[in-house]
Amino acid sequence: MIEIKDLKFDEQGLIPTVITDAKTKEVLMVAYMNKETLQKSIEKRLTCFWSRSRNEEWAKGQTSGNYQHIVSIKTDCDKDTLLIAVNPDGPACHLGTTSCFEEELFVEESPEAFSYEKLFELIKDRQTNKKEGSYTSYLFDKGLDKILKKIGEESTEVVVAAKSQDKRETIYEIADLIYHTMVLMAYADISVEDINNELASRHVIDTKVKQEKMV
Length: 215
Prior knowledge:
Elements: E1 15-21, E2 27-33, H1 35-44, E3 48-51, E4 56-59, E5 68-75, E6 82-88, H2 116-128, H3 135-142, H4 144-163, H5 167-187, H6 192-201, H7 208-214
Parallel strand pairs: 1-6
Antiparallel strand pairs: 1-2, 3-4, 5-6
Helix pairs in contact: 2-5, 4-5
């Protein structure tokens, strides 16, 4: 474990700091810290930076309410850059976007890596911006009863496939069930983060009794 005194600050006493979302690993922003703001960040578990343009320290979220709760602080092999993972209360960018890195300069023409968050964003978009021919938009148009009916059907198909010990078919049906469940989540205004937080809370096992209940 290194200490602040081991870090290499530049001639202005600053060190570049990359902020990432602890859950999604997305890069949110890049800022600068000096020894004092880094110490405050560690003590308060909230990011605090040094503004080079205003020549003053600023606590992220102090005016916007978009605080960044620190999960971990790491440095690179040269000890001249910080990487801080946070749980953000809101957008990192002053423009209101999740990340300051939204403008694309180059994108490789290949399929984007899958994630539940990206799938959920697509589902939410089909809910807000209805698209003709979209099955997802069709489900939202039909409403809650239709969505629940599909979840019931997919649940049964998972059971049938699993009972038949058909691994490939079971995978296929579980994927269908997850998709329709995410449609329900969007309809009920439940986010992927809500589910992540609920599951994470179940891993806080303080006593033997809790452990037995989890098992």
